[in-house]
Give the backbone structure.
Amino acid sequence: MNKEYLNVITVDDDEGNIIFFKNIFKDLKIGVKSQCFSDGDDLMKYLSSSGAIIPEIIFIKYDIPGKSCMECLREIRINPGFSNIVITVYASQISENETEEIFVSGGNIFMKKPETYEGLKKSLTEIITINWQYHSSGLNKDNFIMKV
Amino acid sequence: MYVKFDFNALCKKVLDEKLKEHGLKYRLLNFGEVEFYEPITQEQHNLFKKNLEDYGIEIIESQKTALVQKIKDAIVELVFSENAVPVKASIYIAEKLNHSYGYLSNLFSEVAYTSIENFIILQKIEYAKELILNNKQSLTEIAHKLNYSSVAHLSTQFKNTTGITPSQFHKIIIKRRKNQSINSKMLYE
């Protein structure tokens, strides 16, 4: 265990969602330092800036404005410097083929976005907890695929 | 007046009295090691810690982390061992680390943010993933190797842990690897 918290980035254009995510992260037992961006371009600009804190997890909305979620995913996966980042894509409803495409392009987790706050809390807690295990026990992230 | 201290006896006595004062059921093991008969809550722990600070006695949190690491190591050894271990995981871990399972189990959940049981499942599924991708064994053989009673049992636990079936997992990783090799070819051209 090299540190006591996870760095997390959330990318969503809905301010309400961002607030929900932040509140849930704050209440977790596992320490989370979170940052937020409202579109794909801002995310990629930040990641490629010097001095950026490379997060352990990125939560990105599937239909994000600006650079699309799939473009961000591919760009992140092509950069060996980002190989440690676990990417979680979420959406209310997408097809099986689209979900598979996310995984094949290097996404680690697909979260079907729960409709209630309690549901979201449960899913995010599950995701953060399993990520903590991968992070603190050095598990192989290449094989990390999960649907929540 | 001059006094002479026996630090060892002094510290032990203070620890003894403080533990009693806090109503904790315990026994003192080796030097500086206390075993509780009942799990203590975070609140009890914090109160006790604060009280001890006045005496210059510090609870070593990192020792807990060290022990949790030992538990993790024992689990990995157990799951990844070539020969199936003929005892229950709880017995194996308790004997290996020389503590009661109840104590280890509570400690683990507190430090690792998951239970020993869940951690074992996670490790088994990770190993199953590796074996599935090796393509050398059938799912039935993998289930047997990992001590599952049946393929169905392995598949259910796989699905519960990852949200996808073993065959979906296999398909996705194969496609992803193809995708990666195409991408890296494009990079070099």
Summary: Chain A has a mean pLDDT of 94. The helical segments of chain A are 15-27, 40-48, 69-78, 96-104, 117-136. The domain at 5-147 of chain A is CATH 3.40.50.2300 (Rossmann fold). Chain A touches chain B through 25 residues (CB under 8 Å).
